[in-house]
Amino acid sequence: MKAKALVESKCPGGVVSCADILAIAARDFVHLAGGPYYQVKKGRWDGKISMASRVASNIPRANFTVDQLLKLFGSKGLTAEDLVVLSGAHTIGFAHCVNFVSRLYDYHGTKKPDPAIDPRLLKALTMSCPHYGGNTDIVAPFDVTTPFAFVHAYYGNLEAKLGLLATDQALFLDPRTKPVVQALAKDKNKFFQAFAAAMEKMGSIGVKRGDKHGEKRKDCSMHMS
User: Fold this and answer.
1) Contact (CB, 8 A) for 94 and 142
2) 101: helix, strand or coil
3) 46-47 and 139-141 strand pairing
4) Is the sign of the CA dihedral 46, 48, 52, 56 positive or negative?
5) Helical packing angle, 80-87 and 166-173, nearest 10°
6) Is the Cβ–Cβ distance between 51 and 79 less than 8 Å?
């Protein structure tokens, strides 16, 4: 990790953890893409355990229902509003066809597309992502209107049935989250303020402090012991 090597050259001895570097890099990327600049709390230690098998149960999947999303986020101390606000990160980025192809051809076993997809988006996606086969490297933007800019257009897209993932579009369809989507679609500054606050909240989840539970890695790809 080049960032870690550069930090170590200026502050040797593991003063700044890999966890802190990742949190700061995420903030800087958001800001460089046009999003808000927010303060990042420092002082995290790196975890001593890193297992791929623990990932799936701790992150949302593309076909989650809102109930499942709320349960997962709630288990981390996050609210329904946090869910909608943090989902706004999908204003940038891309997803592979496998994450949404079921919406295009056989939604919930109906043999038909998801009715919550705008026909124009459906046509464009089916041209890139066939039902079977196809290039597994093909991706589509989460935000079809401003895929490279961190703005609030994501929410307006949901209102227009232009959400890419089922989990995205579901936020506008569910009465528990729809009002938040509508409010953020109208006000970029409100989204930016809410996103900064939610990122600070999420950045405090499961923080490691001290050598009993954590470590300060010199190489982010390797544990100390």
Assistant:
1) yes
2) helix
3) unpaired
4) negative
5) 130
6) no
What gap in Å lies between CA 148 and CA 170, rounded to an integer? 23
| Paired residues of 140 in beta bridges | 95
- Residue tagged 């989460």 (tokens): 142
pLDDT by 10s per residue, the chain, length 225: 688 888 888 888 778 899 999 999 999 999 999 999 999 999 999 888 888 898 888 999 998 999 999 999 999 999 999 999 999 999 999 999 999 999 999 999 999 999 999 999 999 999 999 998 888 899 999 999 999 999 999 999 999 999 999 999 999 999 999 999 999 999 999 999 999 999 999 999 988 888 778 888 888 888 876
- CA dist 14 → 11, 23, 94, 206, 207 (Å): 7, 16, 34, 20, 17
Residue 208 pairs with which residues in a beta bridge?
45
Query: Which residue stretches of the chain are H helix?
Result: 2-10, 18-32, 66-75, 80-87, 101-105, 119-128, 153-159, 166-173, 178-186, 188-202
The structure tokens listed for 141 are 């933007």
- Please list, in sequence order, all residues whose beta carbon lies within 8 angstroms of the beta carbon of residue 53, skipping any fewer than 6 positions away: none
What string of DSSP letters covers 71-85? HHHHHTT--HHHHHH
